[in-house]
Design brief:
By secondary structure, this protein is of the alpha+beta class. It has helices spanning 3-17, 23-32, 39-49, 107-117, 142-153, and strands at 52-55, 61-64, 90-93, 98-101, 122-127, 131-136. The protein has 5 helices and 6 strands; from the N terminus they run αααββββαββα. The radius of gyration is 18 Å and the shape is elongated.
């Protein structure tokens, strides 16, 4: 495990165990756990973890992580893709790319959700109005990625 991964694990533990309202509070808690980070590094860590600020019923906001801790091997954020399944009309692949078809206007939301899921199998996405092109990472075969995305999107 790299130093960055250990730091992100510490950030996740702190957010799950404490009510953290600001990045300054989180930096202090992180320092207390033996990790040093800049505000910019912490911001990137929070984005990678899928952390978000949520309103508390009694007022104010706190950081929280998306449901699911990835313990089952599902990448963080991948579980959120299922919410978009109703917007997917078809998933197909050719020798180099995956194509996801959606109703008009839905492709940008699907592409953004895939990007936010930070799937290691995905190099990147490109969205039109009703079509998303997904480039597989590394040597991954597009048909394998299409099957994976189909499953995650519940389509």
């Amino acid at each position: 495990m790299t130093a960055a991964e250990r730091r992100r694990d510490a950030v996740a533990r702190i957010i799950r165990s404490s009510r953290i309202a600001t990045q300054e509070e989180l930096l202090e808690a992180l320092a207390g756990a033996g990790f040093r980070a800049t505000q910019a590094t912490l911001s990137r860590d929070l984005a990678r973890l899928g952390a978000r600020r949520v309103s508390r019923p009694e007022g104010g906001t706190i950081y929280e992580l998306a449901d699911g801790d990835g313990a089952d091997g599902t990448p963080r954020g991948a579980a959120d893709l299922a919410a978009f399944g109703g917007l997917v009309t078809a998933v197909s692949a050719n020798a180099s790319m995956v194509v996801i078809r959606t109703p008009p206007g839905s492709a940008p939301a699907i592409a953004r959700a895939i990007d936010l899921a930070q799937l290691p199998e995905v190099l990147g996405t490109l969205a039109g109005d009703d079509t998303v092109f997904v480039a597989p990472a590394g040597e991954l075969r597009p048909r394998h990625l299409a099957t994976l995305l189909s499953g995650l999107l519940g389509s």
